[in-house]
Amino acid sequence: MLTKRIIPCLDVKGGRVVKGVKFKSHRDAGDPVELAAFYNEEGADELVFYDITASSDERPIMLEVVKRTANKVFIPLTVGGGLRTVEDMHRMLEAGADKVSINTAAVLRPELISEGAKRFGNQCIVLGMDARRVAGLDPVRWEVFTHTGADGGHSTGIDAIKWACRAVDLGAGEIVVNSIDADGTKAGYDLELLRSISERVTVPVVASGGAGKPEDLYQALVAGKADAVLAASIFHFGTYSIRETKEYLSQKGIPVRF
User: Fold this and answer.
1) Quick check: is 216 catalytic?
2) Torsional sign, CA 166, 105, 127, 157
3) Cα(216)–Cα(19) distance, rounded to whole angstroms?
4) Whole-prediction pTM value?
5) Which residue among 31, 130, 190, 216 is the active-site one?
6) CA–CA separation, 155 vs 122, rounded Å?
7) Closest to 218 measured CA to CA, from 208, 229, 205
8) Distance between CA atoms of 20 and 219, rounded to whole angstroms?
């Protein structure tokens, strides 16, 4: 089994890291640069930085915050939020990001995935996906949402599994699968959603939305078949440290990097 990655997520709004529940009721979690430096020292394998209202506000990502964050960390940094063009991607990579994550812009113009992959390589292009279960359907189906940073998001009618497969065909090198239903609840990831996507795509899948305890991360990696786990609340508010989480996973037989 390949080494599994533990990735803190910095959702940034108004220059501060925040964390909400299902994208609402945000709590302040601190300064993004300070938190990034802390997680770098604590042993995080990567960091994800999302400017969560850039798309909904129709503005560029906060470039200076990204630059200052990149200067403080020596682990891979993925940046997303408000990236609409290949030139936007280029600016982020120049600012110090290792990968760029696109969500809303990719749904609105899927060719952006191919354009980014062609210019920077598949390994640089991450598809961010916010998905919600469609109530009352059997078998279960998940729908992709965009503009989730503002008011819970806009429904697209796009099937999440089909979108994941198409994005990989277009050139996405990784997919962050975020469950809107589980986001911020600390009740565990949507394992069925994770497994459904992981079994259908050939690129790494990162679990997002719902981590409340180390067991949740373990289940995402084993039952959900994810390649990495992204978490925010349990790390930001000191419920668990990255070291504690990795020790738990290691004891359960999951290969992690210390």
Assistant:
1) no
2) negative
3) 18
4) 0.93
5) 130
6) 27
7) 229
8) 22
**3-state class (DSSP) for residue 23:** coil
Q: Tell me the backbone φ, ψ of residue 105, rounded to 5 degrees.
A: -65, -35
3-state helix, strand, coil in the chain (%, to 5): 35, 30, 35
d(CA 185, CA 10): 17
Q: Is 151 exposed, middle or buried (0-12, 13-18, 19+ CB in 10 A)?
A: exposed
- Is residue 94 predicted with pLDDT exceeding 80? yes
C-alpha span between 177 and 249 (Å, rounded): 21
Identify which of 224, 6, 178, 199 has the alpha carbon closest to the alpha carbon of residue 80. 178
**Would you state the structure tokens that stand for residue 193, as one six-digit string?**
């959603």
Instruction: Report the pLDDT value the prediction gives residue 150, as an integer from 0 to 100.
Output: 58
Q: Angle 86-95/111-120 helices, nearest 10 degrees? A: 40
Q: Which residue has the higher pLDDT, 36 or 20?
A: 36
- Paired tokens of 38: 């802390």
Nearest to 37 by CA among 79, 8, 5, 78: 8
Print the SS3 string covering 235-248: HHCCCCCHHHHHHH
Which amino acid is located at 95 in the chain? A
Contact indicator for 81, 149 with CB cutoff of 8 Å: yes
pLDDT bucket at 20, cuts 50 / 70 / 90: low
CA distance 251 to 138: 37
Judge whether 98 counts as a catalytic residue.
no
- The 10s digit of each residue's pLDDT in 161-178 is 999 999 999 999 999 999
For residues 109-130, give the mean pLDDT: 98
